[in-house]
Amino acid sequence: MVYVTRRETFAAAHRLFIPEKSDSENEKIFGKCSNPNWHGHNYTLEVVVRGKPEVETGFVIDIKVLKEIIREHVINKVDHKNLNIETDFMKGVIPTSENITMAIWNQLKDKIPSGELYSVKLYETENNYFEYKGE
Ligand code: NI
After folding, report:
1. Residue 66 pLDDT > 90, yes or no?
2. Is the dihedral of CA 107, 108, 110, 113 positive or negative?
3. C-alpha–C-alpha distance, residues 4 and 27, integer Å
4. How far apart (Å, rounded) are the C-alpha atoms in residues 97 and 107?
5. How much distance in Å is there from the Cα of 98 to the middle of ligand 1?
6. pLDDT for res 135
7. Which residues surround ligand 1, an ion (CB under 5 A)?
8. Pairing state of beta strands 81-82 and 2-14?
9. Contact at 8 Å (CB) between 6 and 44?
10. At 39, is the secondary structure helix, strand, or coil?
11. Which SS3 state, helix, strand or coil, does residue 17 take?
12. Which residues are catalytic?
Protein backbone atom coordinates (compact mmCIF):
# COMPACT_ATOMS: atom_id res chain seq x y z
CA MET A 1 0.00 0.00 0.00
CA VAL A 2 1.09 3.55 -0.72
CA TYR A 3 -0.37 6.40 1.33
CA VAL A 4 -0.87 9.62 -0.63
CA THR A 5 -1.40 12.85 1.33
CA ARG A 6 -2.74 16.15 0.08
CA ARG A 7 -2.48 19.15 2.41
CA GLU A 8 -4.78 22.16 2.13
CA THR A 9 -5.28 25.18 4.37
CA PHE A 10 -8.33 27.28 5.08
CA ALA A 11 -9.41 30.08 7.38
CA ALA A 12 -12.84 29.91 8.97
CA ALA A 13 -14.91 31.47 11.75
CA HIS A 14 -16.92 29.59 14.31
CA ARG A 15 -18.51 29.65 17.73
CA LEU A 16 -18.77 26.61 19.99
CA PHE A 17 -21.94 26.73 22.05
CA ILE A 18 -24.91 24.72 23.19
CA PRO A 19 -27.96 26.88 22.40
CA GLU A 20 -29.87 25.82 25.53
CA LYS A 21 -27.06 27.04 27.81
CA SER A 22 -26.21 30.59 28.89
CA ASP A 23 -23.17 32.44 27.59
CA SER A 24 -21.34 31.93 30.90
CA GLU A 25 -22.11 28.19 30.98
CA ASN A 26 -20.89 27.90 27.40
CA GLU A 27 -17.73 29.75 28.31
CA LYS A 28 -17.07 27.24 31.11
CA ILE A 29 -17.34 24.38 28.61
CA PHE A 30 -15.78 25.85 25.48
CA GLY A 31 -13.58 28.71 26.76
CA LYS A 32 -12.60 31.35 24.21
CA CYS A 33 -14.18 29.32 21.41
CA SER A 34 -17.63 30.23 22.78
CA ASN A 35 -17.17 33.98 22.19
CA PRO A 36 -20.65 35.15 21.07
CA ASN A 37 -19.01 37.49 18.54
CA TRP A 38 -17.20 34.68 16.69
CA HIS A 39 -13.49 34.17 16.09
CA GLY A 40 -11.39 32.37 13.52
CA HIS A 41 -8.79 29.68 13.08
CA ASN A 42 -6.28 28.95 10.36
CA TYR A 43 -6.86 25.28 9.79
CA THR A 44 -4.62 22.80 8.02
CA LEU A 45 -6.28 19.76 6.49
CA GLU A 46 -4.49 16.56 5.46
CA VAL A 47 -6.37 13.99 3.41
CA VAL A 48 -4.76 10.57 2.96
CA VAL A 49 -5.75 8.12 0.20
CA ARG A 50 -4.21 4.67 0.14
CA GLY A 51 -3.95 2.00 -2.48
CA LYS A 52 -1.70 0.14 -4.87
CA PRO A 53 -0.30 2.17 -7.76
CA GLU A 54 -1.98 1.41 -11.09
CA VAL A 55 0.46 -0.36 -13.41
CA GLU A 56 -0.09 1.95 -16.38
CA THR A 57 0.19 5.32 -14.60
CA GLY A 58 2.08 4.46 -11.41
CA PHE A 59 -0.51 6.50 -9.51
CA VAL A 60 -2.64 5.49 -6.54
CA ILE A 61 -4.66 8.58 -7.37
CA ASP A 62 -3.81 11.49 -9.62
CA ILE A 63 -2.96 14.07 -6.93
CA LYS A 64 -4.27 16.89 -9.16
CA VAL A 65 -7.63 15.14 -9.16
CA LEU A 66 -7.48 14.67 -5.37
CA LYS A 67 -6.72 18.38 -4.98
CA GLU A 68 -9.75 19.35 -7.10
CA ILE A 69 -12.07 17.00 -5.20
CA ILE A 70 -10.97 18.46 -1.85
CA ARG A 71 -11.32 22.01 -3.16
CA GLU A 72 -14.79 21.42 -4.63
CA HIS A 73 -16.34 19.48 -1.76
CA VAL A 74 -14.56 20.98 1.24
CA ILE A 75 -12.36 24.05 0.80
CA ASN A 76 -14.84 26.06 -1.27
CA LYS A 77 -17.46 25.47 1.44
CA VAL A 78 -15.32 26.41 4.44
CA ASP A 79 -12.60 28.87 3.42
CA HIS A 80 -13.39 32.39 4.68
CA LYS A 81 -16.80 31.14 5.84
CA ASN A 82 -18.63 30.97 9.14
CA LEU A 83 -18.88 27.25 9.89
CA ASN A 84 -21.97 27.70 12.11
CA ILE A 85 -23.95 29.54 9.45
CA GLU A 86 -22.59 29.10 5.94
CA THR A 87 -21.25 25.57 5.59
CA ASP A 88 -24.01 23.22 4.42
CA PHE A 89 -22.30 20.05 5.64
CA MET A 90 -21.92 21.47 9.19
CA LYS A 91 -25.61 22.35 9.64
CA GLY A 92 -26.91 21.41 13.09
CA VAL A 93 -23.50 20.31 14.37
CA ILE A 94 -21.28 22.08 16.92
CA PRO A 95 -18.20 23.00 14.84
CA THR A 96 -15.58 21.44 17.09
CA SER A 97 -12.54 20.12 15.28
CA GLU A 98 -13.77 16.59 16.02
CA ASN A 99 -17.05 17.27 14.24
CA ILE A 100 -15.41 19.15 11.36
CA THR A 101 -13.02 16.24 10.80
CA MET A 102 -15.85 13.70 10.68
CA ALA A 103 -17.96 15.92 8.42
CA ILE A 104 -15.05 16.33 5.97
CA TRP A 105 -14.60 12.54 5.91
CA ASN A 106 -18.28 12.17 5.05
CA GLN A 107 -17.96 14.79 2.31
CA LEU A 108 -15.08 12.92 0.69
CA LYS A 109 -15.67 9.21 1.33
CA ASP A 110 -17.74 8.49 -1.81
CA LYS A 111 -15.86 10.86 -4.10
CA ILE A 112 -12.41 9.28 -4.31
CA PRO A 113 -12.08 7.77 -7.82
CA SER A 114 -9.16 5.42 -7.12
CA GLY A 115 -7.54 4.07 -4.00
CA GLU A 116 -9.56 4.54 -0.81
CA LEU A 117 -9.92 7.32 1.70
CA TYR A 118 -7.72 6.38 4.65
CA SER A 119 -7.74 9.36 7.00
CA VAL A 120 -8.69 12.98 7.43
CA LYS A 121 -6.51 15.01 9.76
CA LEU A 122 -7.36 18.55 10.83
CA TYR A 123 -4.93 20.88 12.61
CA GLU A 124 -6.72 23.62 14.53
CA THR A 125 -3.42 24.97 15.84
CA GLU A 126 0.19 23.86 15.51
CA ASN A 127 -0.19 21.74 18.63
CA ASN A 128 -3.71 20.33 18.30
CA TYR A 129 -4.83 17.98 15.58
CA PHE A 130 -7.75 15.65 15.11
CA GLU A 131 -7.84 12.56 12.93
CA TYR A 132 -10.71 10.41 11.68
CA LYS A 133 -10.47 7.10 9.84
CA GLY A 134 -14.13 6.37 9.42
CA GLU A 135 -14.74 4.29 12.53
NI1 NI B 1 -12.29 28.21 18.14
Report:
1. yes
2. positive
3. 39
4. 15
5. 12
6. 87
7. 33
8. parallel
9. no
10. strand
11. coil
12. 33, 80, 124
